[in-house]
Amino acid sequence: MKALIIDDERLARTELKRLLAPFKDLQVVGEAVNAEDALEKINELKPDLIFLDIQMPGKTGFELLEELDSVPIVVFTTAYDEYALKAFEYNALDYLLKPIEPKRLEETVNKLIEKGRKKVAVESDTETLTESDQVFVKDGDRCWFVDRCWFVKLEKIRLLESEGNYVRLFFEDNKPLILRTLNYLDERLDSKVFFRANRKHIINLKWVDSIEPWLNGGLLVKLKDGHKVEVSRRQAVKFKDMLSL
């Protein structure tokens, strides 16, 4: 599992790297000193997880996550405990207070390793879902209501929207929440039909009605149901390539 340490304090990066050295399942592939540096290194190194400080010069750790289309596993490392609640709104795996205690770090690493094993097990036993596949959809935990469960063809799902650990699906007049992450669904769905527009949305390309230029080199996509979804600048290049001859 590849890890990137993001912290503006050199001593903090050095100490965390030392503490992680005994864990052979983790490989520290790089360090970043601020959000801009981190963005470049995440795109270059493709880490599985990031150890992320919150308060840094320039942009905060939260602002960095807002700029990512696909977010690695996040472990926050900070000297302040007041951000803990907000941290878990970003689906963080853990929140470590500085100075980091070795025993507490070991608990976090064990969580990471277990999460990695589960991911491998799931990936080895799954296939790509195409638009012609049908899936059973359960609205949260309310499937004991008969009208809160559906057996729906994927081609009818026009938009998927992340809401923490859940994803809201939009099909026909229904908007159920399912207990899955957007990253998981992005890996399972056929990329020729379902496109990751930004950190929070996946769109069904066959439901695209119109496209127009948007802020900072991005695009604004209007779906046939009237929904408008921003395609981030980084994803806009890929989007244009997919839809051009």
Overview of this protein structure:
With 245 residues, the chain is of the alpha/beta class. It folds into two domains: 2-124, Response regulator (Rossmann fold); 134-243, LytTr DNA-binding domain (OB fold (Dihydrolipoamide Acetyltransferase, E2P), Beta Barrel). It is 31% helix and 29% strand. The protein has helices at residues 10-20, 35-45, 61-67, 84-89, 102-124, 182-188, 233-243; strands spanning 2-6, 27-32, 49-52, 73-78, 94-97, 134-138, 149-153, 157-163, 166-171, 177-178, 194-196, 201-204, 208-213, 219-223, 228-231. Strands 2-1-3-4-5 form a five-stranded parallel sheet, sandwiched between helices. A five-stranded antiparallel sheet has the order 10-9-8-12-11, with no helix packed on it. Helix 2 packs across helix 3. The longest helix has 23 residues, at 102-124. It is globular. It starts with a strand and ends with a helix.
Give the N-to-C terminal Cα separation.
38 Å
Question: Biggest sheet: strands side by side, in what order?
Answer: 2-1-3-4-5
Which ranges are low-confidence, i.e. pLDDT below 50, for 5 or more consecutive residues?
120-125, 142-147
Range of strand content: 25-35%
Quick one: biggest sheet?
Answer: 5 strands, parallel
Number of strands: 15
Look at the structure and give the CATH class of the largest domain.
Alpha Beta
- CATH homologous superfamily identity of the largest domain: Response regulator
Q: Enter the CATH topology name of the largest domain.
A: Rossmann fold
Helix content: 25-40%
Count the domains: 2
Provide mean pLDDT, rounded: 87
Total of DSSP H or I helical runs spanning 4+ residues: 7
